[in-house]
Amino acid sequence: MDILNDKVSLKIIEGLMNSKTQEEIANELSISPKTVYNRVKLLEELGYVREIKKGVWEVDYEKIGLNTVGVVLIAVYND
Question: C-alpha angle 35/41/44, rounded to 5°?
Fold first, then answer.
């Protein structure tokens, strides 16, 4: 299974990036907390996420393909 092509895994990563708990992620995705827990453990084993303290996860942006930073400057003029 290519975990990054799986919609559930991507939604779990997104939830972790937004500092959501595994239970909150499970509720949003209508799946069991155990499923989220197992998927997070798999993501950790594969190096996509890392638990930095109990319940706090850090995502490896480069590994998931989000290693590019962009800056957008917008100017609005009201004449």
Answer: 140
